[in-house]
Amino acid sequence: MGMARRDLAFVVEAAHRREETLNGIAVHTLESGECDGWPFVAAVGDPALRERVVALCEVRGMTAVTLCDPSVQRHDSVRIGDGGIIAPGAVLTVDITLGDHVHVNIGASISHDAVLGSFSIVSPGARIAGHVTLGRRVFVGVGATIINGTPGAPLVVGDDAVIAAGACVVGPVAKGIRVMGVPAKAG
Ligand SMILES: CC(C)(COP(=O)(O)OP(=O)(O)OC[C@H]1O[C@@H](n2cnc3c(N)ncnc32)[C@H](O)[C@@H]1OP(=O)(O)O)[C@@H](O)C(=O)NCCC(=O)NCCS
After folding, report:
1. Which of 95, 100, 157, 171 could form a disulfide with 81 if both were Cys (CB 3.0 to 4.6 A apart)?
2. CA of 182 to the centre of ligand 1 (A)
3. What are the strands of the beta sheet with 185-186, ordered from one edge?
């Protein structure tokens, strides 16, 4: 994503370290102190775990940075919070606000006037239409679609909701609810 490989490292808790390198990239442990003060992004695909990882890194004096692939298309009005990861081929149109540590994965699209809460994850190929508001720690599965809200009434997905892969969300989703299918229903 626009960085030389030598500038990258994985940092994991010691209990999760299985190897010294992964795909040619060094794996360090958080507890070693070697990475204290480094810039970081949380590269985990579960929103709650993402929040936990961020807290662990911040305790070590690490500073969140944003990674946005050069292939990403976005208007200047798109605001990306600290620790954002915007992967290749993503498209973010206009007047969009991403909270901190949001991950927009490959080929996903986010339309005008969307707001995505901190730690939320938009999986590959998902489609978020205009005037949609996601709470914190929302997971949007691969290929899912969320239809548009309106200027006075955004379509709201509550904190910690899970949108299953391939679902089509056509109305509000309450906090902590998992929805699936077309049209999406709790399940
Ligand atoms: C929704 C999801 C979280 C459910 O996972 P789970 O709790 O392990 O669910 P299970 O696989 O046990 O399936 C439970 C039921 O839901 C159904 N189901 C699972 N995923 C579904 C989906 N995406 N759409 C419709 N139905 C689904 C299963 O067929 C099963 O139905 P049954 O009880 O009638 O047999 C998961 O299937 C999913 O969509 N994950 C998103 C994956 C993804 O996007 N990853 C991105 C990686 S970058």
Report:
1. 100
2. 13
3. 67-68, 85-86, 103-104, 121-122, 139-140, 162-163, 178-180, 185-186
With a 6 Å cutoff on the Cβ, whether 180 touches ligand 1 is yes
Residue ending a domain, among 64, 82, 101, is 64
What's the domain range around 150? Answer: 66-180
Residue 187 lies in a domain: no
CA distance 97 to 77: 9
Would you call 112 a catalytic residue per the annotation? Answer: yes
Domain count, the chain: 2
Indicate if 56 and 73 belong to the same structural domain: no
Q: Which of 16, 28, 75, 112 is catalytic?
A: 112
Question: Ligand 1 centroid vs 180 CA: distance in angstroms?
Answer: 8
Clarify whether residues 158 and 72 are in a common domain.
yes
What's residue 62's pLDDT?
96
pLDDT digits (tens, 9 = 90+) for 121-148: 999 999 999 999 999 999 999 999 999 9
Q: Is the same domain home to 154 and 76?
A: yes
Instruction: Take residue 164 and report the two structure tokens written for it.
Output: 């299953």
Per the CB < 8 A criterion, the answer to whether 157 and 133 are in contact is: yes
